[in-house]
Amino acid sequence: MTGSGTKTTPKSAPRSHSRKRAVVMLLDYLRSPAPAGMVALAVVVGIGAGYGAVVFRWLISTAHYVFFGGMQAALPWLGRYYVILVPAAGGLLVGPLIYFFAREAKGHGVPEVMLAVMHDGGRIRPRVSVVKSLASAICIGSGGSAGREGPIVQIGSALGSTLGQVLRLSEERVRLLVACGAAGGISATFNAPIAGVLFALEVILRDFSARSFALVVLSSVSSVVISHIYLGDQPAFQIAQVYALVSAWELPLYFVLGLMAGLVARAFIYVLYRAEDLFEDWRFPEYLKPVAGGLLVGTIGVRYPQVFGVGYEAIDGALAGQIAMALLWTLVLAKLFSTSITIGSGGSGGVFAPSLFIGAMLGGAFGNLVHGALPGITAAGGAYALVGMGAVFAGAAHAPMTAIIILFEMTGDYRIIGPLMIATVVSSLLSEFISRKSIYTLKLIRRGVDVIGARPDLLDTIPVSEAMSREFEAIRPERPVAEILDSFVRGDASSMIVVDEEGHLVGIVSRSNVEQAVLQEQEEAAAGDVMTPKPVTCFADESLTLALQRLSSLDVAALPVLDADHGMQVVGMLGRRHVLAAYQRIRAQRPEVAARIDRLQGSVPGARVFEVVVHPDSPAANQEVRSLSLPPDSIFVAVRREERTLIPRGDTVLQPGDRVIALTDRERLGELQKVFSRPSKQD
Question: Which of 66, 93, 73, 68 lies closest to 83 in space, CA to CA?
Answer without folding.
Answer: 68
